[in-house]
């Protein structure tokens, strides 16, 4: 008899109500992959997009969503570098898109996207971290090469990644200018590392130059391509802008003119990395920082059980509370 598990497996596009819990076969382990007993997972904008049927071609139905997860190694194939009982996190690499993800009791993922860790932090905290910290850390390091003493602009600062990036940038030793469209979020941004907060009315470059006359050394773009030209205008000659996200929904410029978008001498790059961009020691350093209070994870709300995943999606689409939404199993 096939072992069964609880999971959320969607057959086609729809609203949060399509995230119904059902019984499905427990996935088998195969060479180079491990099976994880899922303890918690974060809920992400990309999963909402996939649920709606608006994702990129690598996503297919039917699918168990979930691009990240935290849990315990349950089973491994012969020759694995992992052992059952290890605490791990996993993220990206096609998880929840081209193969089934973490909205389930168990998930099977390639070993290369698994990060082991040791920590006494609760699963409600650890479950919020993988994708959020990987994206923030990778954007600052791989994308921007941020260094101590530099000035960073984070456009989209009240997002989960934006708040995490501010916290990590301050640890690096950078001065942080963070933006939000909601004046009520200014205190939150400062609490998580912003030295300066700017209210985003669509025209920021001039305000940034009032704080940094020559422009910032680095800019992290999380809002979208529609504001990228303005963001680029806030960067000094020789500085770098990194396009990582599009909270505003604009991922493609229909008519792109490099001379209009990219100022002379300013560098433009992107970041869409994987788990390998977050080294095990870097993740351990972040966990230790959370334990001592030096790093503050941004958690909007914790939900309990797969049955609450639909509410987490509805709340994320509502967009009223900054931070990560976490489902604990």
TrEMBL record:
Assigned EC number: 1.3.1.103
Swiss-Prot/TrEMBL keywords: NADP, Oxidoreductase
Keyword match Translocase: no
Keyword flag NADP: yes
Positions of the Enoyl reductase (ER) domain: 14-327
Group of enzyme by EC: oxidoreductase
Molecular function terms from GO: 2-chloroacrylate reductase activity
PANTHER family: QUINONE OXIDOREDUCTASE
Record's protein name: 2-haloacrylate reductase
Origin species: Acidipropionibacterium virtanenii
């Amino acid at each position: 008899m096939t072992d069964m598990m609880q999971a959320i497996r969607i057959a086609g596009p729809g609203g949060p109500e399509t995230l119904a819990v059902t019984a499905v076969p427990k996935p088998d382990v195969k060479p180079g992959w491990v099976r994880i007993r899922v303890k918690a997972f974060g809920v992400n904008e990309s999963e909402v997009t996939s649920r709606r049927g608006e994702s990129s071609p690598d996503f297919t139905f039917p699918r168990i969503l979930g691009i990240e997860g935290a849990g315990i190694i349950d089973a491994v194939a012969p020759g694995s570098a992992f052992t059952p009982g290890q605490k791990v996190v996993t993220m990206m690499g096609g998880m929840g898109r081209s193969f089934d993800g973490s909205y389930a009791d168990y998930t099977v993922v390639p070993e290369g996207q698994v990060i082991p860790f040791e920590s006494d932090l609760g699963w409600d905290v650890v479950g919020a971290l993988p994708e959020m910290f990987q994206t923030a850390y990778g954007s600052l390091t791989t994308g921007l090469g941020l260094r101590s003493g530099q000035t960073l602009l984070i456009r989209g600062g009240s997002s989960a990644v934006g708040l995490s990036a501010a916290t990590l940038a301050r640890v690096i030793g950078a001065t942080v200018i963070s933006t939000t469209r909601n004046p009520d979020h200014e205190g939150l941004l400062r609490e998580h590392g912003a030295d300066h907060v700017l209210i985003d009315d669509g025209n920021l470059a001039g305000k940034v130059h009032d704080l940094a006359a020559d422009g910032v050394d680095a800019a992290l773009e999380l809002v979208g391509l529609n504001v990228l030209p303005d963001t680029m205008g806030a960067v000094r000659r020789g500085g770098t802008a990194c396009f990582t996200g599009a909270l505003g929904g604009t991922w493609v410029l229909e008519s792109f003119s490099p001379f209009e978008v990219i100022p002379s001498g300013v560098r433009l790059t992107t970041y869409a990395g994987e788990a390998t961009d977050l080294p095990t020691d870097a993740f351990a350093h972040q966990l230790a920082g959370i334990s001592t209070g030096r790093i503050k994870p941004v958690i909007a709300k914790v939900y309990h059980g797969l049955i609450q995943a639909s509410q987490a999606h509805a709340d994320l689409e509502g967009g009223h509370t900054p931070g990560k939404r976490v489902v604990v199993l």
